[in-house]
């Protein structure tokens, strides 16, 4: 079994209007089910709770940013995990929800308990679906974004590969909208591509390519391969894992 961590962000899971894209969610579940059948052990780090909650409830008065995040994530996480439950159940695959916080990655009992929980889930064929506990993680308690979270999960669980799904094909040599810009296909441990990193972020998520780059650097330095690919492409997960030479993406080679 090859253990992989797959991170899918809000920019992949939401429509242009900010609502959850059920068609895309269903397609990703189909792909993960295929990976399970082909002896991949999958941990899924999924955004999308706030988008789910925002489309579910109309509030009668103004909320500040923290209140919005807490309210919409509390409502939306239930809806999101129910979608995953129903879709994976069609394949007879069990899932389990893991909501975590930054302090759980500090060395000690919480770290050990969290790792043990996910190990016993994987041992029994259960896919951990991981997200930040947005109801209590605010300001300094927050992860930078789910890119950072997925990197910490990959290290903690000894994954062989981390896949970061974005809404573009990878890291470009210039603005992705520029026809002359090209995707950087391979990044080796000694490569410095800082000058190519775009600092803009999508409207749906907290991260961006800068965050993915720093996460990829950190995780690859620990000996884990990192792939940045376009989650909106059909069949992206099986393709990028089994025939990567045919798929445009950015891959960070692991350090020895």
From TrEMBL:
Name of this chain's protein: Glutamate 5-kinase
The entry's keywords: Transferase
Enzyme Commission number(s): 2.7.2.11
Top-tier EC class: transferase
């Amino acid at each position: 079994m090859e253990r992989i961590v797959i991170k899918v962000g809000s920019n992949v899971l939401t429509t242009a209007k900010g609502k959850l894209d059920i068609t895309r969610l269903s397609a990703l579940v189909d792909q993960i089910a295929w990976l399970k059948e082909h002896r991949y052990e999958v941990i899924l780090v999924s955004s999308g709770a706030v988008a789910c909650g925002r489309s579910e409830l109309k509030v009668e008065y103004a909320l500040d940013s923290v209140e919005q995040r807490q309210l919409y994530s509390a409502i939306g996480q239930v809806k999101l995990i129910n979608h995953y439950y129903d879709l994976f159940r069609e394949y007879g695959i069990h899932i389990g929800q893991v909501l975590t916080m930054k302090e759980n990655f500090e060395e000690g009992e919480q770290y050990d308990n969290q790792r043990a929980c996910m190990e016993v889930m994987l041992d029994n064929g259960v896919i951990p679906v991981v997200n930040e506990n947005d109801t209590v993680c605010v300001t300094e308690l927050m992860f930078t974004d789910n890119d950072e979270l997925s990197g910490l999960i990959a290290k903690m669980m000894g994954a062989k590969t981390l896949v970061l799904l974005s809404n573009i094909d990878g890291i470009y040599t210039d603005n992705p909208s520029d026809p002359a810009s090209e995707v950087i296909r391979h990044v080796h441990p000694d490569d410095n591509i800082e000058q190519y990193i775009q600092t803009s972020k999508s409207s749906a998520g907290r991260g961006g390519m800068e965050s993915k780059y720093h996460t990829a650097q950190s995780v690859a330095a620990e000996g884990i391969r990192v792939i940045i690919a376009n989650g909106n492409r059909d069949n992206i997960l099986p393709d990028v894992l089994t025939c990567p030479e045919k798929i445009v993406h950015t891959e960070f080679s692991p350090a020895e």
